[in-house]
Automatic annotation (TrEMBL):
This is Carbohydrate-binding module family 96 domain-containing protein. It comes from Roseiflexus castenholzii (strain DSM 13941 / HLO8). NCBIfam families: DNRLRE_dom. It is found in: Secreted. InterPro entries: CBM96 (IPR055372). Residues 322-472 form the Carbohydrate-binding module family domain. Pfam families: CBM96.
Length: 494
């Protein structure tokens, strides 16, 4: 766990300005038979992931469940797992009585890392804990199933850890599935807690949140080393909340939402390795997609959270009651920001954008697609700004530019791309500094489904002052070149 979320730190003001059961949809195969997902050698070298596995475009359905399974494509690293380059996903809401959670996931040859950063107004742990009562206080449950089965089995694992000021063997427990349900067992794993606020177990409204970092050796799960790239497990996370000593516990929040504890088939998908889209098709056509005029409805976009107009507010009423419910859909610019200090969550921001794909003729194969954003600034004063690894995910649903907020925005369906974005360190010429992401995978998926491309950008950064400022679709017509742009090339299906 990064040092800024280590135990017993007093609250820091946020005004610093920093801040494997896969079901293939057979109807698309004619369109993607020439296209495969393969971590290319260059991508592998740049991002520290394996480049050995080839799979066809995976579209996962939630058989017997209520929606498609969201998935996390976990990057593989050599040696230490870099916090800021782990895959990021999220769930929950920000309110006085509800918690929001960022999930970070990565792995190396020997262990799986899952980190939860939780926005929480009141931090409470059990002074006399038992395994049975851990989840009645602030705690997290991490569920894993290594076989992708439909029901709890010996390949199912449940790790529970309760908030505390330091590692505590009394506040963690692990269960393994069996024919009769969950059975407590003993295997090696680490669960490192951290928190930021006034104090644990008090009634102050000045707490900000807490974190839990799970490190699970693959050997503890009966696996000699990391699974081969392309392997898919089931995974779910449940956050338990308590806001007073007397209780009772507040309702749980989960990823995926409304996760059934006893049904691994309805948990999310944890995929080992990051897919990269490749095809042997020859380009025969191309298209540039961006908003043509300032008031056009095309290419809607919106910042949520700490938009540039709402940077790092410190007022208690605002951050818990208003921050998560504000809309910035018509702003001419936007911010993308995250960091490891959970107390600074009022500085965090995500960006949503939707590109129509109806200009691509039917029956084609997507050859490539590049997203370009133009950066004009960053958070922090001169010399403070740090690089970011900004991730692109497919949004799990539609949204409205005029009403989207941090709290009602769709979660990520799947992370699909990542690029390093350095700070702007000198004056710029408009339209700004172009930053690009390869979103061919996401475009091929959306095109095959007959949908627009719905993307969300966020980061797993650790450093303060990691925010990056970009030009939005709503910028004036003088800066059309700076608007978010999608360049697509296609070829012929074989």
């Amino acid at each position: 766990m990064p040092k800024r979320t280590s135990l017993k730190k007093t609250m820091v003001c946020c005004m610093r300005g920093g801040g494997g059961l896969t079901a293939l949809l057979m109807g698309i195969m004619a369109l993607v038979v020439a296209a495969v997902l393969r971590p290319s050698a260059g991508y592998a070298e740049q991002n520290g992931i394996s480049a050995e596995h080839t799979v066809y475009l995976p579209l996962v359905t939630r058989s017997g469940c209520t929606a498609e399974l969201p998935r996390i494509n976990a990057p593989k690293f050599t040696g230490a797992i870099p916090f800021e380059r782990t895959a990021i996903a999220w769930f929950g809401r920000v309110s006085p009585t509800q918690n929001y959670t960022d999930i970070r996931v990565g792995y190396n040859a020997t262990e799986l890392f899952v980190y939860l950063a939780i926005f929480d107004r009141h931090l409470w742990y059990d002074e006399s804990p038992t395994p049975q009562t851990l989840t009645q206080w602030d705690a997290v449950t991490l569920l894993l199933d290594t076989s992708g089965g439909a029901a709890v089995s010996p390949s199912s694992w449940k790790f529970v850890a309760q908030l505390y000021g330091e590692r505590s063997s009394q506040r963690r427990v692990v269960y393994r599935g069996s024919a009769t349900g969950w059975q407590q067992t003993s295997v090696a794993f680490d669960a490192l807690p951290g928190w930021r606020g006034n104090a644990l177990n008090d009634n102050s409204d000045s707490d900000r949140g807490w974190a839990m970092g799970f490190t699970i050796p693959f050997s503890s799960l009966g696996i000699a080393s990391a699974p081969p790239d392309g392997t898919s497990w089931r995974m779910a996370v449940i956050v338990h909340d308590r806001d007073t000593r007397a209780g009772p516990p507040i309702g749980d929040q989960a990823w995926p939402p409304q996760t059934p504890l006893e049904t691994p088939a309805c948990w999310g998908v944890l995929n080992f390795g990051v897919p990269v889209y490749q095809t042997s098709a020859t380009p025969t056509g191309s298209l540039i997609v961006r908003r043509p005029t300032e008031r056009s409805p095309l290419v809607p976009d919106a910042d949520v959270g700490a938009a540039i107009a709402n940077q790092c507010p410190g007022d208690e009423n605002h951050i818990w009651n208003e921050w998560g419910n504000r809309n910035y859909g018509r702003a001419p610019d936007f911010n993308i920001q995250n960091q490891s200090d959970v107390s600074d969550w009022p500085c965090f921001a995500k960006y949503y954008v939707t590109f129509p794909l109806d200009g691509i003729p039917p029956g084609k194969v997507i050859v490539s697609a590049i997203l370009t954003l133009h950066q004009f600034g960053n958070s922090g004063s001169a010399g403070q700004a740090k690089p970011s690894w900004i991730q692109v995910s497919v949004a799990a649903g539609d949204w409205n530019e005029q009403t989207i907020t941090w709290n009602n925005a769709p979660i990520a369906y799947e992370n699909v791309a990542i690029s390093r974005v350095d700070p702007v360190t000198s004056s710029i010429n408009w339209p700004g500094v172009p930053r690009t992401w390869d979103v061919s995978y996401a475009v091929a998926r959306a095109y095959a489904r007959g949908e627009p491309l719905r993307l969300v950008l966020y980061s797993a950064d650790s450093d303060y002052h990691s925010g990056k400022y970009f030009v939005s679709s709503d910028t004036g017509d003088w800066n059309i070149e700076g608007r978010p742009r999608l360049d697509v090339r296609w070829g012929e299906a074989r």
